[in-house]
Design a protein that fits this description.
It holds the Pfam family HECT. One of its GO terms (molecular function) is ubiquitin-protein transferase activity. Keywords: Transferase, Ubl conjugation pathway. This protein has about 650 residues and is of the alpha/beta class. The protein folds into 3 domains: about 90 residues, Ubiquitin-like (UB roll); about 250 residues, Hect, E3 ligase catalytic domain fold (Alpha-Beta Complex), CATH 3.90.1750; about 110 residues, Hect, E3 ligase catalytic fold. Helix 1 packs antiparallel against helix 2, helix 11 packs antiparallel against helix 13 and helix 13 crosses helix 18. The longest helix is centred in the first third of the chain and has 22 residues.
Length: about 650
Amino acid sequence: MLYIYLPSLLADFIWTVMSERSAAFRRRVNDIRDRMNAQFNRLLNEDDSEEGTSLLQSFGVFRQQHRGGPVRRRRGGRTTHRQLTFKVSVLRNPTLTHYRSHRDATPATRVVVPVNLNAAEFMQALRDNIADIPLQFDLCKVNGQRLILPLEEEPPQGIRARNLLGRSNLYIHPKITEANDNSTGGEVVQSEMAIVLHDTETPDHGRHNVQEPEVISGLHENHTAHSSRHGLQEPEVNREEFYIDSAESEVSDLDEAVLASPEQNDSHDEMDLATVLKDFQETHLDTSNYCTVIARRRKILHSACMALSKSYFSWHKLPNIEFVGEMADDYGGPRREFFRLLMVETQNSLGIFEGKPGSLLFCYSQQLLSSNKFYTAGKLIAWSIAHNGPGPRCINRHLFCLMCGQKTSLDDFDVEVFMDEDIKQNIEKVSNCSTPEDLADLKSHLGDWIAGCGIPDIYTATLLDVMRIRGEIVSHFAFHRVASMIQQFVAGMDSCGQFWQMVKRCWKQFLPVFTNAGNKLTRNSFQDLFTIGWSPAGSNRREEEEATIFQWEWWLMAIQEHEVDHAFEELLVFITGADLLPPLGFPQSCNIDFYDQEPGMRRIPYASTCSLSLYLPRGVADEDQFKDLMNDALKGSLGFGKV
């Protein structure tokens, strides 16, 4: 009867809504409502109607099995997730510590489990639904560097509540047993499980092209059919579930927290820069093959762009640098020299940066954007850092944090980095707004300008909003206005193995690489880089070498106290080709060796950037003589093989 009356009543209702707007209309609506409720209540109260009871019970059982149909919102309660969905894959190697490609695991399989399972039941559910799963295994996840990290055994509800995975997948790592150690021909299978936690009332089809096995809720379906065959009483139907609430579905506090902000994975903070970069090199670089780059010392940027334009250029191969007119084979020194000069040229000559040295912003230039200059700069910087070269070390710290999606306070932002005088003056006026009269004057004279910066609430702002408005103006001109330039720059970096995505995940580690936040060289840190090749103790040569090192130590002290016109960075360039310690460090410690001055000749100190060696003359006991020798060596260095 319900199927017969409802369509005709619904049609009458729609026709009435479209045709009448009067007291008769309201009476008609009330009449239709009363008739629909009376008909529905009559069906619910028919105890002797076998057909009606069967319909209600069948619908209730269906809802319990498949979690389908409308859900009445419980007052004062919270929507509970009754099932959780897991995506499971099986790893193929029990000793695997890095997940490198899809070949390391079987195709993903979807498993749906009840949310109220304990840890043991959860593990058993995985064994029941995943093929080729090992008998003993551990739960783990993969971080942004593809390291497989173990997890504690948790029930499904605990995994969700504690957000143990974040955006990562959940991996099942088989335990290495004696049978695994003794096996020779067979390949041990372990499982890697990727989890997507969400309510399963509306299944997600087509999002992941994976096989969906029979879910655990099917066990309840089989149990219900078995009970019906044996004449057991069917479960009581809760009629409250048939009432539909027009309010929107409720979202739990955890869901709101997850949706409101991206996951912050603290595991990246535990890794240092050298580990992050070394993992990237092992995954992407081909150190067994070389790519020759011919460079002119006075046109480094042009030489690098020419290399990038060649069809045979490959960024993941080890660059072999050949400086035109210089006699040197590249065993590391020319490469360090090339990338150091390239970062200087990228900062000064490409034209994509502007502002104060060491705190640069991206230049707002449509012409540079259309000529892909920002893309070129991003690729050159990623190329340099990937091969243990320097980064730009010039980008404004606040801008770098915004680029990495991090929240940063702009209260201490130095407006002097802006090149436009009007922008600086207007921001200063906002900063100096401290009275209601100042605020009224600000709205009158700069209201339209501030609103054009994406702050339309300036006209209703109070004095408490002044610092927030100042920060939003700064972020507009430093970040949002040049978003297209930043996007092209990031695309250039990502062209080298998604390099920027790694930087974004490990932004704290890369902060001194992109900004001027690194530690400067001091006398002590510089001395720690060197070992001295002494002659045997008690020999005449050892005595002369100690006299030279005595003057060397005093000369380093003079550099630290700014008594000489040299810097530790300049001296490090002379010895290694790099002006700072590379992210992965030097391949070996720097050396100080000695040579004898031939009679009647004056040989100045020299260096080998490939072997990281500095050669000093023995027996230099005069301070002024040593200073003159070092000054001539540093100022007269014209290139490789030209000292």
